[in-house]
Amino acid sequence: MRIRPFFWLILGIACVCVTILAFLYQPYVPVSLQVQMEQKQFMASGPSTLKLQLTDPDGLPIDEALVIPSARMTNMDMTALHNRVVPRGHGVYEVNLDLYMAGPWSITIQTQARGFKPQQQTLQVNVI
């Protein structure tokens, strides 16, 4: 029995398409976000610092991630005016927030890295 060249062509195109899709498709992997507070108490008189450690499921550090911090007071409509993220290398990021008023604050950290699911973590702190 002889197979027509048309069917060989279709089989070849299907193989090439599957190979290309296998190289282009990268599933998103969850990222592990660990937050350490360098300050035991947050003061309204100066900047507050948080230290973030981003790792993959195998424990390897994630560099070149996008870290988006935001802070707001929980009992009134106020947000932190200034925040800054400084990458320190080996998956460590330092977040500086200006929490300028005493009271309860909610700090939300959003992270995005290529090949990983975006993640968000919220901390509740009390500024004195």
TrEMBL record:
Positions of the YtkA-like domain: 33-109
Transmembrane segments: 6-25
Annotated keywords: Membrane, Transmembrane, Transmembrane helix
Residues in coiled coil: none
Record's keyword annotation contains Transmembrane helix: yes
Protein's UniProt name: YtkA-like domain-containing protein
